[in-house]
Amino acid sequence: MHRAYLDNNATTPVLPEILEAMRPYFSEHFGNASSIHHYGQQTRAAVERSRETVADLLGARPSEIVFTSGGTESDNLAILGLLKPGDHVITSTIEHHAVMNTCKHAEEDGAEVTSVPVDGRGLIDPADVKRALRPNTRLITIMLANNETGVIQPVEEIGKIATEADVYFHTDAVQAAAKIPVDVNKIGCDLLTISGHKIHAPQGIGALYVRKATMLEPLLHGGRHERSRRAGTENVAGIVGLGKAAELAMAAFECGLDVALLRDRLETGLLAAIEAAGVNGEGASRVPNTSNIYFDYIEGEAMVIALDLKGLAVSTGAACSSGAIEPSHVLTAMGLRPERARASIRFSLGKQNTAADIDFALSLVPETVARLRELSPLWKPVRTL
Ligand code: PLP
């Protein structure tokens, strides 16, 4: 059976070059990077090389990169590492649960949380962030690109507001890094999260950029790994994979190769073939790999299952919310009525996708939408009105 995977915002396959770079660190170069002998020195050197490459990807200094287990841990470290009871944090209504639920947890521990809204395109207004500032605001945590829509937030303007107010600024760049150029100094952030498995490195590795002199309480206590910011023996193979993914991303930026052409062909083709459909986040800048489309009068979950049975993997939004009955908090925050939010599908591309994958999707999606609409009691009457 032919299969195509268009759910790369959930996770990506490890690219062959990345797997090759990692392979020796499972076997011949197995040392603990903290050991002082030959074996440890070999892996320490590999960890530090990766730190330099990841720092380059983000315009940071190597000493400002902390390796973690992934995006969720980096978000937790940034938020809980800074907030104390009585502090105020500004976040948004469209954050990933890794940020949203961490802020909720901080609130239960005595912090105050303000969530700024988004407009119909999924964009935060920096003026809302400015208005939300209080004397006890310690942190602004607002994502760079949304995982469901791909919409890119005005983080540089928010960074300026944070600097002027002398407030820390964290941005979750899990869905932006390696897809668009990201520079911590241009953004003006103090903390920035990335995750390996969204950029063709393995699951279980990530990093947090921590601007020099940021006072951050570690979450994990133990040895003095990662400059005492994150205790625990380094995941050397994962770190090497993340470094290689950063290197490949920088090379791709240089030769101008990206997935935007494929994504745009998919989007235009679907909208031309299917009526009562539209792009969520239309009118805003989006990362080049993501397209979130509503197909009115269908159930997104039914569509995901129907397409999967034919070999096409897509999603209704955040991976962790698949199976949940609640419509996406991101789409409802953008003002979509619940039926339209439930009728929305996320297509997200990766470096491994080809034109044939897009052709496959273009051949399957219109007929599947038509079939599901035939089952909808609402479809025909509305169409003949
Ligand atoms: N932040 C965003 C925007 C994400 O999309 C994800 C994963 O979907 C995460 C954080 C969590 O990253 P991880 O899966 O590496 O813990």
Textual characterization of the structure:
It is a single chain. This protein is α/β, with parallel strands linked by helices and 385 residues long. The protein has helices at residues 16-22, 38-58, 71-80, 97-108, 126-132, 155-165, 184-187, 225-228, 236-254, 260-273, 300-310, 329-333, 338-342, 355-374, 379-384, and strands spanning 4-5, 65-68, 88-92, 112-116, 137-141, 168-172, 191-195, 206-210, 277-279, 290-295, 312-313, 344-348. The strands form 3 sheets. The chain has a 7-stranded mixed sheet, sandwiched between helices. The protein has a 3-stranded antiparallel sheet with strand order 9-10-12. It has a two-stranded parallel sheet with strand order 1-11. The model has no long low-confidence stretch (mean pLDDT 95). The structure holds pyridoxal-5'-phosphate.
Based on the model shown, name its key terms.
41% helix, three-stranded antiparallel beta sheet, alpha/beta, globular, 15 helices, binds pyridoxal-5'-phosphate, 385 residues
Spatially, the strands of the biggest sheet line up as: 2-8-7-6-5-3-4
- Beta-strand content estimate: 5-15%
- Give the overall form: globular
Mean pLDDT: 95
Distance between the termini: 40 Å
Largest sheet: 7 strands, mixed
Query: Number of helix segments?
Result: 15
N-to-C SSE string, H for helix and E for strand = EHHEHEHEHEHEHEEHHHEEHEHHEHH
Q: Which value, in Å, is the CA radius of gyration?
A: 21 Å
Which structural category do the helix and sheet elements fall into? alpha/beta
Oligomer: single chain
Which molecules are bound in this entry?
A: pyridoxal-5'-phosphate
Question: What is the helical fraction, as a range of percent?
Answer: 40-55%
| Number of DSSP strand runs | 12
